[in-house]
Amino acid sequence: MKATAIIVAAGSGTRLGFDVPKAFVELGGNALLWYSLRTIGAVAAIEEAVITVPPAMESRARSQVHAAGLEIPVKITPGGAERQDSVRIALGMTSVEAELVVVHDAARPFATPAMFAATLAAAERVGGAIAATPLADTLKRVGEVAGHRGDKDRSIIATVAREGLWQAQTPQAFRRGLLMRAHERAALDSTVATDDADLVERLGATVAVVDGSTLNFKITTAADLRLAELLAANPIR
Ligand code: C5P
């Protein structure tokens, strides 16, 4: 099994409130991006990587590749306007020799080599696989209703049955040809999705689900980053 990893790191991270793009924010003395690079370096099947970065961040990304001790060939490219555009650009740069492609958000520093290996193994069997976790909380559909004084109150419209609902994470692995077809179709249909599995599902292909982890959360807010700092200092194994 030959696999290429795509690490998407081209987001601006405006919700974090830093002036540096999110993947380059420091976490425990390293850039956020470094964590994903170090992790893929421990996955034997991954023989190449493509990283998408914000404009003019290529050399800083290259420094992170060195700092992570990544010894496989690594291509670095500016990303696109949306995450999906970034993946499409990176996909176009993957080696034709790669049977599988595994896509991962640099904003998830605590994915493990085992998650990469499990998604790749399942993708080899069925075509695609993602890491995910079952929902733990009760789900409410919430809307705004007019309050007594004409102001808007937030309230529950309905409780959504939680059974069978999972939260999608990355890594997400696919046979390369399948993911390429999914992105080509999305471009033709102007489909915009928030993850790659969605585009593959639209082709009617099977996407397996392997165990992610609540520790594999995506850093979005300043509170997420604070939590990540605590975890980086005290890893939970
Ligand atoms: O913005 P969000 O955190 O949901 O983005 C998920 C991942 O996609 C991040 O790692 C981010 O760097 C990446 N991304 C990208 N290109 C974009 C937008 C986001 O590579 N245009």
Please describe the structure with a list of short key phrases separated by commas or semicolons.
237 residues; alpha/beta; Spore Coat Polysaccharide Biosynthesis Protein SpsA, Chain A; two-stranded antiparallel ribbon; 11 strands; 31% helix; binds cytidine-5'-monophosphate
Structure description:
This protein is α/β, with parallel strands linked by helices. The chain has a single domain, classed as Spore Coat Polysaccharide Biosynthesis Protein SpsA, Chain A (Alpha-Beta Complex), CATH 3.90.550.10. The protein contains seven helices and eleven strands. The strands form three sheets. It has a seven-stranded mixed β-sheet with strand order 5-4-1-6-10-7-11, with helices on both faces. The protein has a two-stranded antiparallel sheet with strand order 2-3. A two-stranded antiparallel sheet has the order 8-9. α2 links the parallel β4 and β5. The chain is globular. Cytidine-5'-monophosphate binds next to α3.
